Amino acid sequence: MNIPIKSMCINVLIATIALSTNFALAKDDISVQTKPNIVIFYVDDLGYGDISSYGATSVNTPNIDELAKNGIRFTDAHSSSSTCTPSRYSLLTGEHAIRNKAQILKGDAPLIISVEKPTLPKMLSKAGYTNAVIGKWHLGLGDGNVDWNNKVSPGPLEIGFDYSFLLPATGDRTPTVYLENHHVLNLSKEDPLSVSYIKKIGERPTGENYPALLKQQTSDTIHNKSIINGVSRMGWMKGGKSAEWKDEDFYSVFTNKANQFIEKNKKSPFFLFFSFHDIHVPRLPNKMFQGKTDMGPRGDAIVQMDWITGQIVNKLKSVGILDNTLVIFTSDNGAVVHDGYYDDSIRLLGDHKPNGIYRGSKYSAYEAGTRVPTIIHYPNAVKPGVSDALMSQIDIYASLAKLVKVDLAKDEAIDSENHLAAFFDASKSARRLLIEESPGALSLRENNWKYIQISKRAKKGKKSKRKMRPVNGNNVERGYLAEVQLFNLETDVEETMNLAKQDPKRSIKMKKIIQQILNKTER
To answer: Given 3.40.720.10, 3.90.660.10, 3.40.50.12780, 3.30.870.10, which CATH number is that of 33-431?
Structure first.
């Protein structure tokens, strides 16, 4: 049968339209939305030089490197503090932690974010997002008198998250149990759980009295309390045997929870705050990662962290939403090699430089305290590149608000600035002024100038209770400094030449800027 060419063309056109429509509907069924999904990979104690895309040669991180290759790798991006609790507070509130006097918390500390306070997940909820936090919390729980055997509240669900699966604090602190939403997982009523940071409770052996039971010996008197899974922790823990975690299982437990959340929410916009325990102490990577580097548990924990990142990214890819997912990969503060446990990390460090060329480490007022690896990957919007823009994690809040078209109140996220342009374009600049917090000091970056202001407490000669611990043969500078310091990072990136006496006017000006920033009460 002869069919006119005109009719054939019309039929082909109709078929093409139908096929395109069906394809579009199929894609929409997977989840094609105008608002991107958001995943923040928040690594613990990962230094600027700890991954291969930032120069590491003793450890290979192919999954993170792939994000960097196809995204923007930032060279001057910062956590807001050189310690973990303040950094997390600032990321989720868009405010400097010093406004709330936030410091590293005990394992049974109350929630330090007010349930009335605007938060990043609350803001995203206004834009239709479903929010989850999975991993390390360390922002406190409850009101200061937690009953771990009943509903633990307030917590993440009260400040905007829809789902949470947590380490209540950190791996080196009791309680060593998982908390899913409001309840401890696998807890038996016949063996109730209680925790104390004041006096010994329960019959568990302690690191102080039974060092032979330890997988890793402690190096101070802080970490030598209750032994769980062969590791001596901070604080004493009584009961809760059925709920105890096994550190070596973190890699699969948290990965599976994250991927289940992605699968469940793939058809609508979601925010996943994936807060690693790695590479924080105690470092106990699973046996499938042990021996993958020559740097001992710390190096192997980096490999484990990279594997976890890859598994979650692969899940995003497998459900068809990676291109429409904004991935932010970063760390809560700079690296620390030795921090409470002898795990051979210093002896095996070799030529590896955890913080790259930068001075200091975690706890420090110097650049290595807060200058951390930061990668933004978002195929639908980001052109790959390397950016030297001055960036802060505190700006994630306002930048994401701009992205999802939520107007912020005057008293909301008052220290957060919108730098969405720099998120998506490596050629764009970002901050001119940036505050870096550290124990005993506040620092200010004004472009490439760095001013360090000592707290009154430090000036009076009071020192941190934490001991100075060696890194690469040098003492860790923990922020308690002898004098005001001023550096020009353009010519002295390693912060070796204090110019405060040569340029007192600049020091005075930068000190005033810090006070002006802290006096601000509205956006």
So the answer is: 3.40.720.10
